[in-house]
Write a structure and sequence with these properties.
The structure holds three protein chains of three kinds.
Chain A (H helix, E strand, L loop, with lengths): L2 H18 L27 H21 L1 H9 L15 H12 L15 E5 L5 E6 L2 E12 L10 E7 L15 H16 L9 E3 L3 E13 L4 H15 L1 E2 L2 E4 L2 E4 L8 E2 L7 E8 L5 E4 L3 H6 L2 E7 L4 E7 L5 E2 H33 L3 H6 L8
Helix pairs in contact in A: 1-2, 2-3, 5-6
Chain B lengths: L1 E7 L19 E2 L3 E4 L3 E4 L3 E6 L4 E5 L12 E10 L2 E5 L7 E4 L19 E8 L7 E3 L12 E3 L3 E4 L2 H7 L4 H4 L3 H7 L5 E5 L3 E5 L3 H16 L4 H15 L1
Chain C lengths: L15 H14 L18 H22 L17 H4 L14 E5 L7 E7 L2 E12 L2 H6 L7 E7 L15 H17 L8 E11 L4 H15 L8 E8 L12 E3 L3 H6 L2 E7 L4 E7 L3 E2 L2 H34 L12 H7 L1
Parallel strand pairs in C: 4-5
Antiparallel strand pairs in C: 1-2, 2-3, 3-5, 6-7, 6-8, 8-9
The chains are: A alpha+beta, B alpha+beta, C alpha+beta.
Subcellular location (chain A): Cytoplasm; Nucleus, Nucleolus
Family (chain A): Belongs to the RNase PH family.
InterPro entries (chain A): ExoRNase_PH_dom1, ExoRNase_PH_dom2, ExoRNase_PH_dom2_sf, Exosome_comp_Rrp42_subfam, PNPase/RNase_PH_dom_sf, Ribosomal_Su5_D2-typ_SF, Rrp45
Chain lengths: ~375, ~240, ~350
């Protein structure tokens, strides 16, 4: 069923109850601002004509149900209005929480993995340059890089502009709304920002075309397609792979003239890339966070008592560490986790390098000369 | 005996010869079909049309999408809160809650009713599924007053499967459902209990933690990779070898 | 109120190796005034002048890369004349501290009479004011908004426009600030006995008056003090401080020392992390690092940070106890009410 229809139904149910409460309008605090009845600006809100027809249907239905079972309606009127009919994530049940915890004490994870085992990580590239899709178990993330020529910031005339934009859309789950960043989204974008941008993975000075006047603005859009835990690690691989896969149009500067060449005129050039940082996330379980799990799934994430994300590159440089609260974990365990992460980062790094190489081979058709060749392919 | 065939899209005409006609019993429409008076039956989803001549019933088998409750479905719900004389129960994510009256359990009075906290699981039957009203659940048969296995679920683990697999699991005939994982695992000597909710939730419990996880993995793998009977045997064989 | 310079009591057994070395340097230096300029015994045997040149060269190279790392930090001066190269000779930092010394930590509680709990904290020139209101009943809107995390605490941070060198318009949607608020909230949530207050909320408002490094750490300490002042039951103090390393991220820099409690100037030049621990234990509530550093440096930095947190805890505890004793003296509270104090108060009653 379409989202619009669902919303209408929800609204309609509420409307029915509103009518059932002897026509008294619901208390203002109890109706969400998303309620089409009160918020005509909402994109899904029906037009006033439609709302009138809904009104009529509402009355008709009240009457029909009244005729069928009057006692049922009475019981309905006693039900208090739910405070807000926001779409809600299904929270994990007590049974599941308990089971996950006991299973961990017996060294069992629900998907049969070892504690220090990643889910299968796969990386694919699009037809275009700069599109990467990462699958980590059921978590799927797409990153797309684009570049345009703009004016640099006034306070940084020698640097290009580089930004990472994350979006958790209702595509992932209806609990996410467009243009209203949730906590998850803020934390995800901050982690990517710190890992990739602040650590200087991309040389922004190389994006400068003409000091203070023209520069490249590189933008990475991160789309979460499905969420089954550990968004950060998957998103980080996607961003790094997409940026390394990206080719920006070649340019030349003559005096005050900047020429941007099309792909046919000149081979597009890769970005000047300095190092590839990757995130590794550990989750902690137990009273004192004494059990550490790598790459928690969504169910496991809901039970964790703390999480610890460390970003490293293959040279053993820490780019970022984030243990943002949660249960206090022994410092020695954190150091052990960091050491474990260095191994994992090497593995991810090799995987990404290999995939990039494979893709480059696939695309390489013998360079410009092969394309410019006049004759046809000879049949042998 | 159920017959399969005929792939339909929403709004397709179903050939009248395909619709079972029983001399006495009324025609029963299952999920995915809608009666438009006076006499046309239209599918509302895309899938395969199944018929059962003996029961004089017809339904559309489809996999995926959101769970839409229909009367007499047995579902696994999660208590959200308790207010007045009802529990509010979540039976599908992002859908409005169903209501479960406090007294809709076997042989309870106001004093002896089960106290369920938010987050507890119940196995319940859909008593009322009207499009424009909250879904109502019950954990007791209104005619016999017996629970018939319904009620709160204690311990165990819930695995999410597709709606199609949930429906196939609750079929009585194995040759129709083509799901034999559970039987294979049972034959291998694993001890476990299974409760199948039509809303795509399967509860597994009663055995050791490792066995529960194993059964859950077998089920989810069968579901995700859409295994046939032969592949299911392989899955079970592989999982059992990991166990030892 | 400088913390006594003591050899670090290192809890991490594996860190003993390095902790022995700086201690030795330190005792050497305190012999006389002149010895401040003597090379530490661990330094390579070269004439001081060439050594300085080498190091300065290294520093120049390091900072040019570091500049790009810290490129978007708001108050970046173009030419920052922090010469970290002198550290290796004098073993003194830009503000004259040694490697394991905290800055002056001054704190007060019960500064705002209208609140349930309040505190004012200075760590060096970083000044933070904290006000706690609650526990109060959760509003319906709050209940829905945080239904999944069911958080007791609600943390708000406002950074005054005049708090740093460049005046900056405070923005409501600064992700960095909301991340800090999230960190403080998530850490304190586990330290507070939240089960005692179902369906309640405690709001913590932090105002940053002046920034000179260790901002997140100061927020942690101020919030802890204010919570204690408000009489919220907690399992222990959550204290925090920063620790850095004199190394750049070049791997070969063996002579690098860990540093405790960095000021703003140092934070802009050196890799550092913020550690928050629960009470005097080695258990880390929050660990935030935003700079590039060799993974081998981490151990030393973490150990110094954890030790610094213990020092901070002692200082905060003293503040609370002094204030509590004063309040009993003044008769502001009845004897028998325990204000964030432990055994000492109890014995006084007898």
């Amino acid at each position: 069923m379409e989202k619009g229809t669902v919303e209408l139904q929800v609204w309609h149910q509420k409307f029915l109850r509103y009518l059932a409460c002897e026509g008294s309008p619901p208390a203002p605090g109890r109706i969400s601002s998303r309620d089409p009845l009160h918020d005509k600006s909402s994109s899904h809100s029906p037009s006033s004509g439609a709302s009138q027809s809904w009104f009529a249907i509402g009355i008709a239905l009240i009457f029909s149900s009244f005729l069928k079972s009057p006692d049922k309606l009475n019981s309905e009127t006693q039900i208090p209005l739910p405070a807000v009919n926001m779409p809600r994530e299904a929270e994990i049940s007590t049974n599941e929480k308990q089971f996950l915890k006991t299973a961990l004490t017996e060294n069992v994870r629900i998907d049969g993995r070892l504690f220090e085992q990643y889910r299968p990580l796969s990386l694919g590239f699009g037809e275009e340059f700069g599109v990467a899709e990462v699958e980590l178990g059921k978590t799927r993330i797409l990153a797309k890089v684009s570049a345009e020529v703009t004016v640099p910031y006034a306070d940084r005339p020698f640097d290009g502009i580089f930004q990472i934009v994350t979006e958790l859309s209702p595509m992932v789950s209806p609990a996410f709304e467009v243009n209203r960043p949730t906590e998850t989204e803020v934390l995800l974008s901050r982690l990517l920002e710190k890992t990739v941008r602040r650590s200087g993975a991309l040389d922004t000075e190389s994006l400068c075309l003409m000091a203070g006047k023209k520069c490249w603005a590189v933008r990475v859009d991160v789309h979460v397609l499905s969420h089954d835990g550990n968004l950060v690690d998957a998103a980080c691989v996607a961003v790094v792979a997409a940026l390394r896969h990206f080719r920006k149009p070649d340019t030349s500067v003559e005096g005050e003239m900047v020429t941007v060449y099309t792909a046919a005129e000149r081979e597009p050039t890769p970005l000047s890339w300095l190092h590839s940082p990757y995130c590794v996330t550990w989750s902690f379980y137990g009273e004192e966070g004494e059990m550490a799990l790598l790459d928690a799934s969504w169910k496991e994430e809901q039970v964790q008592v703390a999480s610890f994300t460390v970003s490293l590159n293959r040279h053993g440089e820490v780019c970022q560490i984030a243990k943002l609260g949660g249960v206090a974990v022994d410092a020695v365990l954190l150091l052990k986790c960091t050491a474990g992460a260095t191994v994992e980062v090497k593995r991810i790094s090799e995987m990404v390098d290999q995939k990039l190489e494979e893709d480059a081979k696939r695309r390489d058709k013998g360079g410009l000369m092969a394309e410019l060749r006049a004759e046809n392919e000879r049949e042998s | 005996m159920a017959e399969e065939g005929l792939f339909v899209l929403p709004g397709d005409l179903i050939d009248p010869s395909f619709i079972p006609s029983h001399p006495k019993k009324p025609l029963r429409l299952g999920p995915g079909l809608r009666h438009i008076p006076p006499n046309s039956i239209l599918p509302t989803v895309s899938g395969q049309v199944y018929t059962d001549n003996r029961k004089n019933s017809i339904w559309v088998e489809y996999n995926g999408g959101r769970y839409v409750p229909s009367t007499n479905d047995q579902v696994i719900g999660q208590i959200q809160r308790s207010a007045g004389e009802h529990y509010y129960v979540n039976i599908a994510p992002y859908a409005s809650n169903a209501v479960l009256p406090h007294l809709a359990f076997e042989g309870v009075t106001k004093k002896t009713r089960p106290q369920l906290n938010p987050g507890a699981l119940v196995y319940a039957r859909v008593a009322l599924a009207h499009k424009h009203m909250d879904v109502e659940l019950e954990c007791v048969s209104p005619s016999t007053g017996k629970a018939d296995g319904l009620g709160p679920l204690v311990d165990g683990m819930v695995f999410n499967v597709s709606l199609g697999l949930a429906r196939r699991l609750s079929m009585s005939k194995k040759e129709n459902s083509k799901v034999i994982v559970l039987d294979l695992l049972g034959d291998a000597g694993l001890v476990f209990e299974v409760v199948v909710g039509r809303n795509g939730r399967v509860w597994i419990g009663g055995g050791s933690v490792a066995d529960t996880v194993l059964v859950g993995r077998a089920l989810t793998q069968t579901d995700e990779e859409d295994h046939g009977p032969e592949a299911q045997k392989n899955v079970v064989r592989r999982l059992l070898s990991e166990r030892k | 109120m400088l913390a006594p310079a003591k050899p670090i009591n290192c809890p991490l057994a594996s860190c003993l190796a390095w902790s022995a070395c700086p201690t030795k340097k330190f005792t050497n230096c305190s012999d006389s005034e002149l010895s401040l300029f003597r090379l530490p015994p661990s330094a390579p045997v070269t004439t001081p002048s060439t050594d300085t040149i080498n190091r300065f060269d290294l520093y120049l190279r390091a900072t040019s890369v570091l500049d790009s790392v810290f490129s978007h930090s708001p108050a970046r001066n173009v030419a920052m004349p922090l010469d970290t190269s002198t550290y290796s000779m004098a073993l003194l930092r830009v503000d004259g501290r040694r490697w394991n010394e905290l800055r002056r930590l001054h704190a007060q509680i019960r500064t705002q009479s209208a609140s349930d709990g309040s505190s004012y904290l200075e760590m060096g020139h970083t000044k933070v004011l904290c006000v706690v209101t609650g526990p109060t009943e959760k509003l319906a809107s709050q209940r829905m908004a945080s239904s999944s995390s069911s958080s007791l605490l609600d943390v708000n941070i406002s950074i005054a426009g005049f708090s740093s060198v460049d005046r900056k318009r405070p923005s409501r949607t600064d992700k960095r600030v909301s991340e800090m608020a999230f960190t403080v909230q998530q850490s304190l949530n586990k330290a507070v006995h939240a089960a005692i207050f179902p369906n309640s909320t405690i709001s913590i408002s932090l105002t940053v008056l002046s920034q000179d490094g260790s901002l997140l750490a100061s927020l942690f300490n101020a919030a802890t003090l204010a919570l204690v002042d408000a009489g919220i039951p907690m399992s222990d103090y959550v204290t925090a401080c920063t620790s850095g390393s004199t190394s750049s991220y070049a791997a070969a820099d063996d002579a690098a020392d860990p540093l405790l409690d960095l000021n703003r100037q140092e934070e802009q030049e050196l890799p550092f992390l913020t550690v928050a621990t629960l009470g005097g234990s080695d258990r880390v509530c929050a660990l935030v690092c935003e700079s590039r550093v060799q993974v081998s440096r981490l151990e030393g930095m973490l150990a110094v940070g954890v030790d610094g947190c213990k020092q901070v805890r002692t200082l905060l505890d003293r503040v609370i106890r002094e204030r509590g004793a004063k309040m009993i003296e003044e008769g502001a509270i009845a004897r028998g009410d325990v204000v964030g104090a432990g055994d000492e108060m109890d014995t006084e009653e007898d």
